[in-house]
Design a protein that fits this description.
Blueprint: H1 2-15, E1 23-27, E2 30-33, E3 36-39, E4 45-47, E5 52-56, H2 59-65, H3 73-92, H4 108-126, H5 144-156, H6 159-166, H7 181-194
Parallel strand pairs: 1-5
Antiparallel strand pairs: 2-3, 4-5
Length: about 210
C-alpha cells in the first residue's frame, strides 16, 4: 500500500539510522501477536514487543457503520499513521515512560495516544513530498476534504464520544485512555499545521487541550 510505504519512508527520513521499519499485519477475526492474542473488537493496534502494526480487515468499515465516521481513503491512512506513530514512540523510547493500563485525563496513556495523533499529522504534512523509487510522490494530493474526514474520525474515537455514544451515555474522565474528541482533533491538527515532530511533545506540557 502506498500509504504504508509513504509513512515508513517519511519516518526513515526523519529518524535516520534510528529508524527500523515496522511490518503491517492485516487480519480477520483473531490474531496472535508478540503481545498476546487479539480480536477485531480491539481495533487497530501496535504491538511493541513485535514492532508490528495490526489492522483488522473490518476496522475501516466499522469506523463508518459503528462510529458514524465519514470514511474515505485518507481516513484509512490517518489510522495507519497513528499506529505507526506508536512505533516511532517505541524507537525513541517514549513508550517506556508510560505505565500500561494507566487511565485518567493526564495519564501517560492519554499522552501517548495524543502524541501518536500528532505524529500522524506530521506525516500528513509531508506526505505529498515523500517519493517512491522513481522520485514521484507516493501520495499525489491531500485535499481539505481528506483532512476534514481525518478530523471527523479523530473526533469519533475520542474517549468522551465513545462513552456517550457507544457506552453508558455519561463521560467518566477517570477512565480516559486516548483523550477527548477535541484533544485528538487538536493534536492531529498541530502535527499537520507544523510538520514538526518536536511540536508533538505531549509529555512536556500541562495543557493537553
Amino acid at each position: 500500500m502506498a500509504d504504508i510505504e509513504s509513512i515508513q519512508d517519511h519516518w526513515s527520513a526523519v529518524l535516520g539510522p534510528d529508524h527500523r521499519p515496522a511490518d503491517t499485519v492485516f487480519f480477520a477475526g483473531t490474531v496472535q501477536t508478540g503481545c498476546g492474542g487479539a480480536t477485531s473488537g480491539v481495533g487497530p493496534f501496535y504491538c511493541p514487543a513485535a514492532e508490528q502494526v495490526y489492522i483488522d480487515l473490518s476496522c475501516f468499515d466499522d469506523l463508518q457503520t459503528r462510529f458514524g465516521a465519514e470514511g474515505g481513503a485518507f481516513v484509512n491512512a490517518y489510522v495507519l499513521g497513528h499506529e505507526y506513530g506508536h512505533h516511532v514512540q517505541t524507537l525513541l523510547g517514549t513508550s517506556r515512560l508510560v505505565t500500561p493500563g494507566e487511565a485518567r485525563p493526564t495519564s501517560g496513556t492519554v499522552r501517548l495516544e495524543l502524541q501518536a495523533d500528532c505524529y500522524a499529522g506530521t506525516w500528513a504534512y509531508a506526505a505529498e513530498s515523500v517519493p517512491d523509487d522513481s522520485g514521484a510522490p507516493l501520495i499525489a494530493e491531500i485535499t481539505d476534504d481528506d483532512i476534514d474526514r481525518a478530523l471527523d474520525t479523530a473526533g469519533r474515537i475520542g474517549d468522551d464520544f465513545i462513552q456517550t455514544e457507544l457506552g453508558g451515555g455519561t463521560v467518566d474522565e477517570d477512565a480516559f485512555t486516548h483523550g477527548s474528541s477535541e484533544q485528538r482533533r487538536q493534536w492531529f491538527s498541530t502535527g499537520y499545521a507544523t510538520g514538526d515532530p518536536a511540536q508533538c511533545d505531549t509529555f512536556g506540557t500541562d495543557d493537553l487541550g
